[in-house]
Amino acid sequence: MKQNVLTRYRVMAYVTAVWLLVFTAAIIAKYGFETGDTMLISQIHGVLFIVYVVFAFDLGSKAKWPFGKLLWVLAAGCIPFASFFVEPKVSREARALVTDPAPVTAEV
């Protein structure tokens, strides 16, 4: 597995988590205080979540995760604050599977 697969997942995990928190705050403001609109925020989060699902599935298939673990990682993108706890654990496990190409040395 290449490093960029893990990096894409990590970036999208954090971006999606932050937008989920923004969306949650907008929902609380809309229904709790009857202010604001959530349409644009929900659409942005929806698109970002789809990208997160694609990247998480890509990482899971290359890391050969069991289906249950993949579902847990995908569910973490739906629960506020969960990605902040799941992502470091997943990254630690996946980092061991990253294969870096051998460094190129110049012969003199």
UniProtKB/TrEMBL annotation:
GO terms for cellular component: plasma membrane. NCBIfam families: integ_memb_HG (TIGR03954). Its main location: membrane. This is Membrane protein. Coiled coil: none annotated. The chain crosses the membrane at residues 12-33, 39-57, 69-86. Keywords: Cell membrane, Membrane, Transmembrane, Transmembrane helix. It holds the Pfam family DUF3817. It is found in: Cell membrane. Residues 6-92 form the DUF3817 domain. It is a multi-pass membrane protein.
